[in-house]
Amino acid sequence: MYTETVQTVRHWTDTLFSFTATRNPGFRFISGQFTMIGLQVEGRPLLRAYSMCNANHEDQLEFFSIKVADGPLTSKLQKLAPGDQILVGSKPTGTLIQDNLLPGKTLYMLGTGTGLAPFVSIIKDPDTYERYEHVVLVHGCRAIPELGYGELVVNRLFEDEFFGEMVKDKLLYYPTVTREAFRNTGRITTLLETGKLEGDLQLPRLNRETDRVMLCGSPAMLSDLNKFLTESGFQEGNHSEPGHFVIEKAFVEK
Q1: Does pLDDT of 84 surpass 60?
Q2: Which residues lie below 8 Å from residue 58, measured CB to CB, with a gap of 6+?
């Protein structure tokens, strides 16, 4: 377990915030993985699983979190300020890694809410763009302000002087909301079932021969998309056998 120092905190809405912290040079992870992070509470570590949002080559840790007023950990984490200390587990893990997928042409990363977090790390990793012709990031939220963190990350990537050209050629960002008028509306499951997602992105319909899918989000979304993909002939991958899609189940009970 590492003890790290909070460097920045930004509140996006009354239910979402992100923060950065120092990173021990010995902490290594694969883009898309998570670790346990938390606080000392009454002399004991209180820990929950959080995906790293930073790229694996960045020297700062970054996390994206919900705020739960009576949540044992998030009720305290949301009050973090620069200079505060957090605990970071030294054993990252998770299923949302490239080696759990068969080779393909297009990578779809489908996230709702803070399920965006592992995909932020993946879209910052040059290896992702070397593996795929198209990298599709779909972020579903209820309201437009909840998209703010993802929009900032993507815009910064497009503008990056070293990385921007590669990203512009391959990254397709598709934010969608369910409770407001916006340029894209609807649940991710519906957008896939109807083919609207692929149509809007000018891509062929989802196909297991060419397309690979990563899922992270609400239990309902994971259940619906698991069913949709399985019925479409996609097979789930894991550490022992790569497949056409992978699901991060670590956050379902949170």
Answers
A1: yes
A2: 23, 124
